[in-house]
Amino acid sequence: FIAAALLNGLAFLLACIFLKETNRSYGETGKLVRIKPFVLFRLDDALRGLTALLAVFFIIQLIGQVPAALWVIYGEDRFQWGTTTVGLSLAAFGATHAIFQAFVTGPLSRRLGERPTLLFGMAADATGFILLAFATQG
Fold it and tell me: What residues form the membrane-spanning segments (predicted)?
């Protein structure tokens, strides 16, 4: 994890140094305006309106990490799974999420709308976890 974080940071640094900006904006004066990529990190008035949205996003992302973090402990304790079974089940869990994100989320969002799709997904997750709590065999 440390190596991945360091390599990711190095890639970001190299991209900032060597990649040229392709979106050249011109201000009202017609002169080239320099784009500042780190201006987003300032907590000014523009970001204050996003505080609630960012908080909800953070909570949903945090909740989304719980299953993967506890999957190994739960599988080994509840079903006496070995490392191979835990790994395969976690891979299937991740593949299922990837397939649904790639092929189901878009069409469902276009059909139901964004809010109902989000609520449907959260309800489906909750239902799945409730059913998993009652599982006796793995």
Answer: 51-74, 86-104, 116-135
Residue 99 to residue 78: CA distance in whole angstroms: 27
List, for residues 16-25, the tens digit of each pLDDT value: 888 776 665 5
Range of the domain at 73: 42-133
Domain count, the chain: 1
pLDDT of residue 109: 94
Per the domain annotation, does 49 fall within a domain?
yes
In a domain, 118, yes or no: yes
75, part of any domain: yes
pLDDT tens digits, one per residue of 59-79: 888 888 888 888 889 899 999
In a domain, residue 108? The reply is yes
Please report the sign of the dihedral spanned by the C-alpha atoms of residue 23, residue 25, residue 31, residue 36.
negative
Sequence-distant (≥ 6) Cβ neighbours of residue 82 within 8 angstroms: 76
Contact criterion met (CB below 8 Å) for 73 and 86: no
Whether residue 25 contacts residue 35, with contact meaning beta carbons closer than 8 Å, is answered with yes
Task: Give pLDDT, residue 8.
Answer: 92
